[in-house]
Backbone:
């Protein structure tokens, strides 16, 4: 009878150990999953900067739910560049941080289409923000 209790206890300990090990492996893979590659993702939305501005002025909370953390493609004219900071400004309303630090050839006034992750709308500066932006062809 004593041997039977020991065997039952060993089974319980082994079962608990296996459950903990499976949970630990699952947690590890959840925490250290691969990063998104925005450049290869399909754009969820394709809009002009003016249309983005219009949607946010009508209903900013709904627009945030729609665009936040999504890959979007945006059309606009380059109004300024800061290649030292790897960023460009479109239509004086959208700031895009470029993924590729070697990107060159941006001319102020030139129309461009970029794809990136929508980070949000800055109320203070009144501008939209993209990061991991790449030039769309």
Residues:
């Amino acid at each position: 009878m004593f041997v039977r209790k020991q065997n039952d206890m060993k089974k319980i300990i082994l079962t608990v150990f296996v459950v903990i090990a499976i949970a630990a492996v699952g947690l590890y893979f959840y925490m250290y999953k691969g990063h998104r590659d925005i450049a290869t993702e399909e754009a969820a939305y394709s809009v002009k900067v003016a249309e983005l501005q219009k949607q946010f002025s009508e209903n900013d909370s709904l627009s945030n739910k729609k665009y936040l953390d999504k890959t979007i493609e945006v059309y606009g004219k380059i109004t300024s560049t800061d290649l030292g900071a790897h960023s460009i400004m479109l239509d004086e309303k959208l700031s895009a941080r470029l993924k590729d630090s070697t990107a060159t050839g941006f001319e102020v006034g030139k129309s461009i289409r970029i794809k990136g992750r929508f980070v949000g709308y800055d109320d203070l500066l009144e501008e939209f923000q993209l990061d991991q932006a790449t030039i769309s062809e």
Notes: The CA atoms of residues 73 and 115 lie 4 Å apart. Helices lie at 2-31, 49-58, 60-67.
